[in-house]
């Protein structure tokens, strides 16, 4: 029998740690306001009949995905806590017969979302969006001129070479080398793995332009730094700063919730559609699952035709 009494979430949390109370109340409030489409909520007196219409698996899943997309800097632990807060709310609602046990169990079974490397549910750019993004990189007024040169090189590198935000942050000028007739970037990836990717001419030109303005462009200096700091030992941009840079560019290009990993995902999708083989894409993206099949460290990559070439030719850059 379903009872539609009011639920007092605040009282049920009193035995929990203060930090847990604060987080659970904040997330429960956010969920109820968003999915209930209301302006305010009293957590000491949540109407049971109304709550039974709002609290269900579909609504919780939609809210969690939206939370991840609109707050992309949330880590996995924060996303897990948000999920746990709503599972707790569902459990109390079930104990008080506001929702049935099946509803609670279905919400409890929702899998935690992944925030690894800034990923969020499948986003990649279409050709027209890529074109707008590239145009934005040369549009005055979005950033200060010196930051514009840095950010143009940064975003082009991630988009046309498929590197991660952390890999861009770790790159030093000494990692930009020549191999035969090719410009190559040595990439320091996950698990201290080192890879080598060919840098297309357009991206290399952007890097050269940025290096001319770099505050300390020695080989041991990080490539992407705060341009206003004049010191040989500059700290690299943080992944949070790279996130913000990519988001700013995305907003200017009318691409909402754009993340660094979306650029990597776009690279993979577009080069595949352009005709690159899985092996060429594997060499560039260095996916951990496939990297386990490689039999030696620092394997030389074939640079005569790489995944980056396919994308550059496809987009005619």
Characterization of this structure:
There is one protein chain. This protein is mainly α. It has helices at 9-12, 18-36, 48-54, 57-70, 76-95, 101-108, 127-137, 145-161, 165-170, 201-213, 239-252, 260-273, 278-285, 288-291, 307-315, and strands spanning 176-179, 182-188, 194-198. The protein has 2 domains: 9-116, no CATH class; 127-315, Orthogonal Bundle (hpI Integrase, Chain A). Helix 4 (57-70) packs antiparallel against helix 5 and helix 8 (145-161) runs antiparallel to helix 10. The relative contact order is 0.11.
Corresponding CATH architecture of the largest domain: Orthogonal Bundle
- Class by SSE composition: mainly alpha
Order of helices and strands: HHHHHHHHHEEEHHHHHH
Rg measurement, Å: 24 Å
CATH topology of the largest domain: hpI Integrase, Chain A
Give the % helix: 40-55%
Report the sheet-strand fraction: 5-15%
For this structure, what is the CATH homologous superfamily of the largest domain? Intergrase catalytic core
CATH class of the largest domain: Mainly Alpha
Counting DSSP E segments of at least 2 residues, the number of strands comes to 3
Shape: elongated
- Oligomeric state of this protein: single chain
Main β-sheet, in a few words?
3 strands, antiparallel
Number of self-contained structural domains: 2
Compute the average pLDDT. Answer: 81
Task: Report how far apart the termini are.
Answer: 66 Å
- Uncertain stretches of 5 or more adjacent residues: 115-122, 289-302
